[in-house]
Design brief:
alpha+beta, Pseudouridine synthase, Archaeosine Trna-guanine Transglycosylase, Chain: A, domain 4, 10-stranded mixed sheet, 16% helix, 37% strand
Amino acid sequence: MQGLILLDKPEGLTSFSAVSRIKRAASEKRVGHTGTLDPMATGVLPILLGRATSLSSLMLDADKRYIAKVKLGIKTDTDDITGEIIAEKEVNVSDNDLEKAINSFVGKISQTPPIYSALKKDGVRLYDLARQGKTVEIASREIEIFSIKLLSGLDENNEFVIETHVSKGTYIRSLARDIGEKLGVGATLTELRRTYASGFDIEACASLEKINSDNIGEFILSEEIAVRHLREIKVTEKQAIRFCNGGQLSFDRINIKDIKENELFRIKFNDKLLGIGFADFEKCEIGIKCVINNI
């Protein structure tokens, strides 16, 4: 099987485990996901099957949208509710205070990722270092919060809900932690749902419980959707054969303008996606990034 499945990952399951279930249902060895979600998180998880897995690094990964529930008054070592509580404070915060605090994060800001994350320090995952009890200095990085909307104010459990649109590389756990620090009472993430990623909305996703070995074909979309943001180059039959056999395509023989250095393209013959090519200015050719389908 080959193509794309848009999965609504359930809570309590790692992204790896979700992929394993799809792999078993599809009886396909080559299966991979893009955009890892923590086990406690739910929502958009694109999964590629077969030769389409070659497209995973090429998918649009610019921005994401989330709905998050945050609890004030506690801090955890993981910055979410799955961790150990390391500090508690009384909460005396109004919705107006909360609104001002969350709005202060809109725009380009410096954010420090959580220690329990898959980022690497000297080649070692941060969460492995954290589990070993090691203290490491984590470099902050610039991210952008395009918008934050308060969906519901503080309830009796000192929890509130936000909807946020963020740039690639943003940790919502870190955002929750930093909102708590801004208010001086601490905070931790208690629920997280990704509603948009890689150009796909949650409405387009299927729940894992609905997918099985008998019906999985109904949920597999064309792999081309995963790279629809790339420009298209239509080729002749001879060019298609050449590309699929590992041959480059001369700039002079393709019908496309304003090519940029190393730009990626969808290479198509008729309505079939053959693969992905890249602009090689040194050779004035479209080189081969990957071949997905043969002519």
